[in-house]
Amino acid sequence: MNRIANTSKNLLKNGSAKVLLLVLSGAFLIALPSAVSAQKSFKKSYPASKNVRLDLVNRTGTVTVEGWERNEIRISASLERPYASIEPSSHSGQIRIDVVKANQGRGEVGDANFTIYVPYGATVDIETRIGNLNVSNVRGVYVRAHITSEGDVTLTNIVASKVTAKNVNGNMFFDGIVRPGGTYVFKSVTGDVNVRIPLESSFRLLATAPTTRNISLGSFSNTSMRLIGNGRRVVGKVGGGSATLTVENLRGTISFLRR
Amino acid sequence: MNCGNYQNLISAFLDGELDADTWKAVEGHMEACEECSNVFTDFSSILDFCEDSLAVDSEPPNSHALWCRINNIIETEVPEPQEQEVVVSEAAPGFWNSSLNLSAGQIASAVACIAVVSSLVTVIAFQNLASGAEPGSSRDSGRTVFEKVLADLGIGETPVERTERRVKEQRAAIDYWKTKVEARRASWNNETQIVFDRNLSEIDKAVNEYTKLLQEDPQDSISNEMLDSALREKMELLREFSEL
Question: Can you tell me the distance from the alpha carbon of A236 to that of A225, in angstroms, rounded to the nearest whole number?
């Protein structure tokens, strides 16, 4: 131990050691901000009407869209690679962001994670090739959330006449209101599809889960429901049946929950 | 005899079933009366057409009964010449007088065709109802009544043929997008490649599963729909990743 202490004292006395320490400290100070700046952030706001339409096509990453009371769309994004491009366009009451098109021919551009606030009455049409999609507190005419491959779709507190959600691998959760005459389509290849709606909802149901034959109707089970094809499909009416609810899961399960 | 009586004899006249005196009387009237001459021309045209068709197709089950039916329809449709004049003088120059100058024979043929087709459609619709096919059922192939009629007549595709054609088309499109993906794949990072392969494998599992089920029971419409859905998913996955 004494030998090590003596060696350290000798090194500190030596000028070259001091220079080495200085260089190391400098390198650390330079490396720290460059590591932070490798992630680029993007922020932009647009004035918008109550029923503005948001179209977003993402490559990879998580997209979160949330309704708020302001007549404004606020887009925040963090980009994994600084050279990735986001070019929103605003035209005729529509905000469009196409990350796939904007980055074609640039090679791998990494994840783009979005958080977007939209007016409550907005129409939301979002899709991504890989990643999660979350939409909440939206009451527009139409909500569409499509994942080309894997990722979870989470739609919370949605009041729209037309809702479509799709993924291949990942869970799907819809929590919202079924509007009279509305159309609701949820499709997955594998994973679980959960639909949480009020008990007083009125819709015609076509639910198909052929591989698992696991279709849980919960409180929505009634005498009009018929099992077809040895339980692979359930067809029936809940209430007057003015809306249409189609759920298809090729290799997963389907569950209905009371809201 | 009035025009109606002469028109009733046209069929027998054309078939050579009249005695010589009656034949001459009918022939003389046809030369003198334009209205009856037109009916005669229409009848002989229909007969010529039928004879031509018979040369190619099989003979109708009872040609005499068919002609009797047409004759009866004409009797009910064609008014006496005097009454016709009154109608013409009273009618305003409108749609029937100006644009559709149809003869009694043409109208009769059209009515007969409509009657036969509607009877056929009604019978098939009742058969469908009686068989208890319901929308969404595993045996309901999703075909329209018209498609079913065509299939029953041997003109349209059967459900199996239709499935085979559709699957073939989808597989061709899948092959096209596969080549596009192969060209782009090298530019993806390792993680994207892994995710793509994993998801393609999940869809392929579904495709194989429903293909197998359809081989066991080609009429199973749920498996048919699910195979269609799985193939569309696969096509969409390939197409959208080919853009990356």
Answer: 4
